[in-house]
Design brief:
Two copies of one chain form a homodimer. Chain A is mainly alpha-helical. Chain A has six helices and two strands, in the order ααββαααα. The interface between A and B is large, with 56 and 55 residues. The structure holds a DNA duplex.
DNA sequence: GCTTGACTTGGAGTGCGCTCGAAGTCCCAG
DNA sequence: CTGGGACTTCGAGCGCACTCCAAGTCAAGC
């Protein structure tokens, strides 16, 4: 498979594939007599997995560590596992944070919905000052 | 409250606060006779909310739209609600994707764990070629 | 009155992850 | 044999979101 086809199949651009190869995320593929890259389909699985690492927010630097271990092959499994486990914790934390922020978003949207559907001038009025929040009775900045 | 204190309280740097003001995320604060910014505590709530938008992946450009409506004040509630509702859908989608990728991660980690704890040379051997995947019996690239 | 440190502005620099362009080579259909 | 399209390399450019620097002002404590 040449780069154009791999691009179509993987969803990456040919530019990006070459870029990934340059930085070491993708292994050097075989080249045919004209110097054209010739990929094995198995690369698609690896690209898919890279996409998942990326989608879960792993920085390229970390993917690079993982990719290097993968290149090395046997004997690096434990290290790869550790990388993945640490990353999994990051993902779990993000998930938790996202859920929390989502609920804040829900609350806020519900507030807008209530204020607007009621055409409530008082509540709508409040929306500029500090944006709705229920705990608005904050103390002023005190001299420490 | 001056910028340094706001920085400490909000967790943003003074640089970032000025930057946010420049681009329009934060309203122009009052300035004292020396030209120093003087913030009301209520800004902290807004910064907190901005942080939540950011944490949920809203691009600055979109925050800007929201911030501009908030500045305008009354009469922009419906638009703000729409922005938030659309964003909420993005967040839900991210959450779903993250959960899915997390489970892939779990599977992969479990695979490493099994292969390593068994010291299984066959399975470990497989980990370089295409990284463990169960569905390894892929057809070769066919001529379309 | 002098030092220290927090503040001001404008603009330049950074890090990440691509993304694109230029110039050239190669293969194949018509 | 010619035109078109896919490929090659190298290096520059981009968009985002900061982050920092330089040069200057100002207020308070010693």
């Amino acid at each position: 498979m040449k780069i154009g086809k791999l691009a179509r199949r993987s969803g990456l651009s040919a530019h990006t594939i070459r870029y990934y190869e340059r930085i070491g995320l993708l292994p050097q593929p075989d080249k045919n007599t004209s110097g054209h890259r010739d990929y094995d389909v198995s690369i698609l699985k690896w690209i898919d997995f890279l996409g998942r690492l990326k989608a879960t927010g792993m920085p390229v630097r970390e993917m690079l560590r993982y990719a290097a271990l993968r290149e090395t092959g046997d004997g690096t499994e434990a290290e790869r596992q550790v990388i993945l486990e640490i990353h999994r914790e990051h993902v779990r934390a993000r998930l938790a944070g996202l859920r929390q922020n989502l609920s804040v978003l829900d609350t806020k949207i519900a507030f807008y919905a209530a204020a607007i559907s009621a055409g409530d001038p008082v509540k709508c009025k409040g929306t500029k000052e500090d944006d709705h929040d229920p705990e608005r009775d904050e103390q002023r900045d005190r001299p420490l």
